Amino acid sequence: MIGEITKAHYDQILRMNKQFVHWLAPMDRDELIYILNLAKYARQIDNGRGVLIGYDNDTVYPNHENMRWLAKKFDRFFYIDRVIVDGKASGKGYGKMLYVDIENYARSNGYPRLVCEVNTLPDNPGSHSFHEKMGFVPCGQQVVKPGIKAVRYYEKSL
Predict the structure, then answer these.
(1) Residue 9 within a domain
(2) Which of 4, 112, 114, 123 is most buried, with most CB under 10 Å away?
(3) Which helix (DSSP H) or strand (DSSP E) does residue 66 occupy?
(4) Is a pLDDT exceeding 80 seen at residue 25?
(5) 82-118 per-position pLDDT tens digit
(6) What is the mean pLDDT of the chain?
(7) 12 lies in which domain range?
(8) Strand pairing of 41-45 and 50-56?
(9) For position 9, which CATH number holds?
């Protein structure tokens, strides 16, 4: 059920990103291709109804504020960057399945921790709750754009 992201999934991913753009960075097809080329982990579930994209600490991603912040705090990590589950697929457990998969991937490749960020401005309470239930603990915060965007960072030791 979980597989690699292919071109056949691009339109679905872009629709979902647009649906949740208030918590995600805007993305067009070129940006999607760019981040997929950087990604060490890029998987989808149910024909793209759930997506998780991640990078390791050595990924060169210019101007990525969250990667830069995390690199100052941790030497070695695997970063969960973009997680999107179609609103129509809510409650099917896709997020949990993808997180278990990336955790297994990161652990089997020797990473000592998973890290991510969740918006506090605009707040994403459902995502905070999800991460805490999945064993992530807060490890910092940052105001990215005053009055517009702030995040809380999470880590999960593996």
Answers:
(1) yes
(2) 114
(3) helix 65-73
(4) no
(5) 887 887 888 899 999 999 999 999 999 999 999 999 9
(6) 92
(7) 2-117
(8) antiparallel
(9) 3.40.630.30
* 123 inside domain: no
Does the pLDDT at position 46 exceed 70? yes
Whole-number Å distance between alpha carbons of 158 and 156: 6
Would you state the torsion angle of the CA atoms of residues 153, 144, 95, 156, taken in this order, to the nearest 10 degrees? -10
- In this prediction, residue 138 carries a pLDDT of 98
**CA-CA distance, 18 to 90, in Å (whole number)?**
16
Distance CA 106, CA 148 (A): 32
Do you find a cis peptide bond into 122, omega within 30 degrees of 0? yes
Say if 141 falls within a structural domain: no
What is the average per-residue pLDDT within 22-45? 89
Domain count, the chain: 1
In contact, 78 and 102? CB cutoff 8 Å: yes
- pLDDT at 24 > cutoff 70: no
The answer to whether residue 102 is domain-embedded is yes
What's the rounded Cα separation, in Å, for the pair 73 and 34?
A: 26
